[in-house]
C-alpha cells in the first residue's frame, strides 16, 4: 500500500450489505460477491443475486487483475478532486468478468489504453488499479 | 393493448427564456402549463390528468396540482430523468385509452443557471451503487466520455465525427431567436475547444439553461374538436439500461429496446421517419442512439453523421431543428420535453422555414434520462399526422 494516496480518499461508508467488502479492502484484499446458487459473480456489491434472485451470496477473494474496458482522462476535477486533474476514471474488467468503476493510478494519464492489463492497488482502503 | 392512435398531442409550449433569475420553479411550471393549454385551445379547468417528474417541487404532482388549482382524476410522477416527459406521454395515452383521462398536462421547469435545486436530492435512502461510483472523481461528463472512448475503440469512431453533430445543431440554432447559443461552429472549432473528459470537448456538451416546457395529450374525441392541428401518437417504448449485473456494455443504449417497441407499435420502420428529435446531452448520446434506433448499422454512426447527414431540411436524417440541447435549450438539465416540442412543430409545419422538413409526415422523439456510463431510461415516441 502506498504511504501517500495517489488520489483523494475518504473512509468508505459501509452498509450491512457491503461491510465485508470494505473490511477486506482495509486488509488489502479484493473480494467480489458471488451467488451460492447460480455461482455467477455480482457487481456492484450486494447481498442479492440479480442473475437468479437468490439471497445466498458470499464474498469471494479474487486476484484483483484484469484489463481496462474503457477510460477517460478528467481534465477538470471537482470537489476533493479539484487539484488532482488530470486523472483517469476507468471501467476495469476483472478476470472474473465483472466490470467495475475505478481510477487508474501510478502511470501517466497519456499511457492508459483500452485493453491494458492492470492490477488492484489499495489507496487507504479504496481499490484503484495500476499497470500490471 | 396498443397505444397507436390512443392519444394526440394537442398543445406544446417551450419557455422562451434561458436565464430566469426572477421566477420560482413552480411559477415556471405554471407559465408553461398555461402556454401549452392555450396552444391546444384548452384551459386549466379541462385538465383531468397531471404529470410531472423530479424537477417539480415539494410533493411533485400533489404540490404542483395544488399550486395550479387542478382537480384531476389521475396524477403520475414517474421519474426517469430527462426522458420522463416521453414516458409520461405513453402513460397518459394508456390512461386515456383506459377511459381514466381525457386531457393530460405534462410540465417541466428548472433554474440550474440560478442555483435551482438539483432533482433527486431528497431524503431518500442513498442509491445502493453510490459508494462504488462516487469515490472516483466522476462528473456527469465522465460517464459519457467512458461511453465515447469505448465506441471509438470498438468501431473507430472519431472526435471529428462527434463534432459533426454539434455543427449540425449549430446550423439549426442560428435560425432560433431563443437559442442559448446561436453561432454556427465548425468541426475545427469543436475540436479546438478544451477537452473536459477525453475524448469529449467542451463543445460536445449540452448547454445549461433555466426554463421549461409543457405538452398537452388528449383523447381522439377531444382532438377532433380543437382548432389547431394535433399530432397523433403512433407508438411509444421505454427501456431501462443498467450495468447489467456487473457486465456493463458501454456501446449500446436502451434505445435498442425502446425504439424497437415504439416502431413495432407504430407499424413503421426507421426508413419511414422524416424527422428525429434525438436526446443530445452530449454528442456521443446522439451518435449511439441513432445506431440503436436502427437508422444505420451498429458502429456506423460516425459515418452516418458526416457530410451534413443530420442537417435540415435535406440531410439523410434531419435532427433537432431547434438547435437541440447542444445549442438551444436543456432546461433543468433535462432535454426530453424540448425533444417532443420540436417534433410537434415539425409535424405542424411550424418549425423555422429554414429547417422545416418538407411534407413531414412521421417524426420520432427520443429521450435518454440518466447516464450512458451507468444507467438510464430510454423512451421513444413515434408521432404522425392526424390521419397517419
TrEMBL record, chain A:
InterPro entries membership: ChsH2_C, ChsH2_Znr, NA-bd_OB-fold, Thioester_dehydratase-like
Record-annotated ChsH2 rubredoxin-like zinc ribbon domain positions: 22-56
Span of domain ChsH2 C-terminal OB-fold: 60-123
Cleaved signal peptide residues: none
Gene3D superfamilies: 6.10.30.10
PANTHER family per UniProt: BLR3430 PROTEIN
Protein name: Unannotated protein
UniProtKB/TrEMBL annotation, chain B:
Pfam families in alphabetical order: Thiolase_C_1
Domain Thiolase C-terminal intervals: 248-384
Gene3D superfamilies per the UniProt record, alphabetical: 3.40.47.10
Stored InterPro entries: Thiolase, Thiolase-like, Thiolase_C_2
GO MF annotations in UniProt: acyltransferase activity, transferring groups other than amino-acyl groups
Signal peptide: none
Protein name per Swiss-Prot or TrEMBL: Unannotated protein
Naturally occurring in which organism (per UniProt): freshwater metagenome
Amino acid at each position: 500500500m502506498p504511504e501517500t494516496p495517489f488520489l483523494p480518499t475518504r473512509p468508505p461508508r459501509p452498509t450491512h450489505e457491503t461491510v465485508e467488502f470494505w473490511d477486506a479492502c482495509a486488509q488489502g484484499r479484493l473480494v467480489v460477491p458471488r451467488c451460492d446458487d447460480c455461482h455467477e459473480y455480482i457487481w456492484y456489491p450486494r447481498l442479492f443475486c440479480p442473475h437468479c434472485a437468490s439471497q445466498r451470496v458470499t464474498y469471494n477473494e479474487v486476484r484483483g487483475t484484469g484489463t481496462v474496458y474503457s477510460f477517460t482522462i478528467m481534465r477538470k476535477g471537482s470537489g476533493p478532486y479539484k487539484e488532482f486533474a488530470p486523472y483517469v476514471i476507468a471501467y476495469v474488467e476483472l478476470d472474473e468478468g465483472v466490470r467495475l468503476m475505478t481510477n487508474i493510478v501510478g502511470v501517466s494519464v497519456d499511457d492508459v489504453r483500452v485493453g491494458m492489463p492492470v492490477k488492484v492497488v489499495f489507496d487507504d482502503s479504496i481499490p484503484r488499479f495500476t499497470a500490471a | 393493448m396498443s397505444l397507436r392512435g390512443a392519444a394526440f398531442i394537442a398543445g406544446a409550449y417551450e419557455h422562451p427564456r434561458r436565464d430566469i433569475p426572477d421566477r420560482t420553479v413552480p411559477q415556471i411550471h405554471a407559465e408553461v402549463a398555461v402556454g401549452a393549454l392555450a396552444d391546444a385551445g384548452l384551459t386549466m379547468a379541462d385538465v383531468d390528468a397531471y404529470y410531472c417528474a423530479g424537477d417539480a417541487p415539494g410533493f411533485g404532482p400533489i404540490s404542483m396540482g395544488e399550486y395550479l388549482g387542478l382537480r384531476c382524476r389521475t396524477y403520475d410522477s414517474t421519474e426517469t430523468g430527462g426522458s420522463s416527459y416521453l414516458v409520461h406521454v405513453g402513460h397518459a395515452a394508456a390512461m386515456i385509452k383506459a377511459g381514466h383521462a381525457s386531457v393530460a398536462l405534462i410540465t417541466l421547469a428548472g433554474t440550474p443557471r440560478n442555483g435551482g435545486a438539483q432533482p433527486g436530492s431528497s431524503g431518500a435512502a442513498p442509491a445502493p451503487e453510490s459508494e462504488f461510483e462516487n469515490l472516483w472523481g466522476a462528473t456527469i461528463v465522465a460517464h459519457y466520455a467512458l461511453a465515447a472512448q469505448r465506441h471509438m475503440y470498438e468501431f473507430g469512431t472519431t472526435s471529428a465525427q462527434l463534432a459533426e453533430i454539434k455543427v449540425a445543431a449549430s446550423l439549426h440554432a442560428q435560425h432560433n431567436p431563443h437559442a442559448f447559443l446561436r453561432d454556427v461552429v465548425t468541426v475545427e472549432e469543436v475540436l479546438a475547444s478544451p477537452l473536459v473528459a477525453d475524448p469529449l470537448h467542451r463543445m460536445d456538451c449540452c448547454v445549461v439553461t433555466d426554463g421549461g416546457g409543457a405538452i398537452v395529450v388528449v383523447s381522439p374525441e377531444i382532438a377532433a374538436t380543437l382548432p389547431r392541428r394535433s399530432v397523433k401518437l403512433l407508438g411509444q417504448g421505454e427501456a431501462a439500461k443498467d450495468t447489467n449485473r456487473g457486465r456493463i456494455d458501454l456501446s449500446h443504449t436502451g434505445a435498442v429496446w425502446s425504439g424497437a417497441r415504439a416502431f413495432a407499435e407504430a407499424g413503421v420502420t426507421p426508413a419511414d421517419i422524416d424527422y428525429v428529435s434525438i436526446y443530445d446531452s452530449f454528442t456521443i448520446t446522439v451518435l449511439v442512439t441513432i445506431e440503436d434506433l436502427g437508422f444505420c448499422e451498429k458502429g456506423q454512426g460516425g459515418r452516418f453523421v458526416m457530410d451534413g447527414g443530420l442537417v435540415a431540411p435535406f440531410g439523410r436524417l434531419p435532427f433537432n431543428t431547434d438547435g437541440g440541447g447542444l445549442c438551444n435549450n436543456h432546461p433543468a438539465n433535462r432535454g426530453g420535453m424540448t425533444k417532443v416540442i420540436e417534433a410537434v412543430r415539425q409535424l405542424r409545419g411550424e418549425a423555422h422555414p429554414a429547417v422545416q422538413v418538407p411534407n413531414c409526415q412521421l417524426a420520432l422523439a427520443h429521450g435518454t434520462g440518466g447516464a450512458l456510463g451507468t444507467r438510464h431510461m430510454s423512451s421513444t415516441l413515434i408521432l404522425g399526422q392526424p390521419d397517419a
